[in-house]
Amino acid sequence: MLTSILAIARPMIILAIILFVLWAGGFLVFHIAGFLIHLLLIAAIVVMLIRIIQGRPPIS
């Protein structure tokens, strides 16, 4: 009886581990991507402000 319970539980445990690893990987990737997007936005604003201060025409 115990072996039949283990036979049923083993795939469920493996599935739970795989799902946890995928969730943790996605969590990390989206946080890094969000950071990079904000960094690019800040860089674009700084470049735009420098162009305005120097009196250059906007990029067309």
Could you please describe the fold and organization of this structure?
- The chain is mainly α.
- It has one domain (1-60).
- It has 1 helix and no strands.
- It has one helix spanning 2-54.
| Mean pLDDT over all positions | 87
- Count of alpha and pi helical runs: 1
Query: Fraction of residues in helices?
Result: over 70%
The gross shape turns out to be: rod-shaped
Domain count, please report it.
1
Which oligomerization state do the chains in this entry correspond to?
single chain
Reported for the largest beta sheet, the result is: none
The SSE order reads H
Count of distinct strands = 0
How much of the sequence lies in strands comes to under 5%
The parts where pLDDT drops under 50 for at least 5 residues are none
Distance between the termini: 75 Å
C-alpha Rg, in Å?
Answer: 25 Å
Q: Which class do the helix and strand fractions yield? A: mainly alpha
Give keywords.
mainly alpha; 60 residues
Quick structural overview:
Helices cover 88% and strands 0% of the residues.
Secondary structure layout plus pairing:
Blueprint: H1 2-54
